[in-house]
Amino acid sequence: MAETQGPRLRTIIARNHRWDLIIGTIGLLATTVGVLVLMLLFVDLVIDGWQRLTPDFFLNFPSRRPEEAGILSAWVGSALVMVVTAFTAVPLGVAAAIYLEEYAPKNWITELIEINVTNLAAVPSIIYGLLALGLFVYILGLGHSILTAGLTLGLMILPIVIVATREALRAIPVAIREAAYALGATRWQVVSDHLVPYASGGIYTGVIIGLSRAIGETAPVITIGALTFIAFLPPIPFTGDPPAGPFDWLFSPFTVLPIQMFNWLSRPQTAFHVNAAATGIVIIVATLLMNGIAIWLRSRIRSKLKW
Amino acid sequence: MNQPKTLDDNAAMVTETLKAETRKFNFFYGDNQALKNVDLPVAERRVTALIGPSGCGKSTLLRSFNRMHDLYPGNRYEGEIRLYPDDVNLVSPEVDPIEIRMRISMVFQKPNPFPKTIFENVAYGLMVRGEKRRSVLEEKVEEALRGAALWEEVKDRLDDLAFNLSGGQQQRLCIARALASDPEIILFDEPTSALDPIATASIEELIAEIKEKVTILIVTHNMQQAARISDYTAFMYLGELVEFGRTDELFVRPRKKQTEDYITGRFG
Lengths: 307, 268
Hints:
Chain A has helices at about 5-50, 55-60, 70-105, 110-120, 125-140, 145-170, 175-180, 185-215, 220-225, 255-265, 270-300. In chain A, helix 3 packs parallel to helix 6, helix 7 (about 175-180) packs antiparallel against helix 8 (about 185-215) and helix 10 runs antiparallel to helix 11 (about 270-300). Chain A has a single domain (about 55-300), classed as Orthogonal Bundle (MetI-like fold), CATH 1.10.3720.10. Chain A is mainly α. Chain B is of the alpha/beta class. Chain B is built from 11 helices and 11 strands. In chain B, the strands form 2 sheets. In chain B, strands 7-8-9-4-10-11 form a 6-stranded mixed beta sheet, sandwiched between helices. Chain B has helices spanning about 5-10, 60-65, 95-105, 120-125, 135-145, 150-155, 165-180, 195-210, 225-230, 245-250, 255-265, and strands spanning about 20-30, 30-40, 40-45, 45-50, 75-85, 90, 105, 185-190, 215-220, 230-235, 240-245. The longest helix of chain B has 14 residues, at about 135-145. Chain B has a domain at about 5-110 and about 185-265: 3-Layer(aba) Sandwich (Rossmann fold). At the A-B interface, helix 7 and helix 8 of A face helix 3, helix 4 and helix 7 of B.
């Protein structure tokens, strides 16, 4: 009988476990740094801006007197721009993703398009601003308007929507597609009856993540000439007389939340800085809220899917 | 190596009406030839089983019957699969695979219901044909679910999601889905390999009932299953159809050494 090898193994196992502990600790530290910095920033903003978050702050136009100034024109502008952004990015992005995933032949042209789409996500946002200034403002003559801003931000988040939609489509098992094709469905029937409904959770998530990035964008919106001080609201959408009336809001000058914040920050009076902090809270809460909705929608739709 | 059988040899084994027949059928995945000169007769309203070791081409042959290979690039058919009584070559490029799939339906290895309701699953084959009348859909769905021996279990919860059913029920749902649009042939690709013995028995019973009305072609790994449920059996090996015959003869008196080795468990 050989003697037991237990004690020798235990020494080795103990040594192996040491690495578990070390890597686990490093990982925990790395995670904490990210979360803590974000928390600190947010707490700092809240401490600075909390007192300005009154109903009046949301209902007042900007003013030369900091304590009377509000973000009415900015949040209305942001909301309307987001509507245009969504209406631009969703149809274009979803259609492009469906084409690339389901229809495009697998050849070098498709591959080139795919690489480009992925790279577009890495293009700095100010480049989109410059493109929009040339194309939408000067060539197409759309002006420094809500429409221009929405189209610009829509193009900017297009890659996010495309990538999210493609991933959602790819997550659908081959067996489901084959089941539909085997019953004599055409490609479009498979896409519209099955793939898009099953991918909708991923698509919504991509759109909302994209919008929550767009709502905080400053550079491209400044480039296309958003106003920094605006004391009126765009016409209420879809209320004017046809033909141009219902859509006159699209061509209205505007400002958005991050620009309002930037403008107040660049003032010398510290009272305006408090307003800026309060605006920052609004933007962060809006972003977190949108991400929350995305997570909720995804889990709700996922719970109905199983394969 | 045995020479592939000639057309007359295999077809002569079937004295009944043929529903379909492959003639000198070859199939290629790119440059890789997966099926070689296969001559397989398929008798009408009978069960024909395809057996053979993994990779022998039996699933590839089955999936040729409803042109599933058309979904992926680089695949190529050569030769003919004739479908009777029209006598069309269903792998011909002029024949629309959509029409073939509407006439020849399929049940897959793993139950693959759509993440939709039980009703929507069964009705889908009719819906792709543009059938929208609720009364027709309801009638056909009930008929198909009865045909798949599932009606009594699900009649009160047709609007439940299909994945709430057990594995065996899901597979019977897939059979109902395949039955609903009155197919001429149903292809079964190892339909019980993901099921427990009790669910397997109920699927086998079902196949015996369905063959009263529909021609059945089934791939199975399980030789006992082939012996139990099929009228004709084809043994395939390395992309060739080695032996075809009446099931009761093939399992009792195989004519080829390879077939004998396989069915007695010496390889495979």
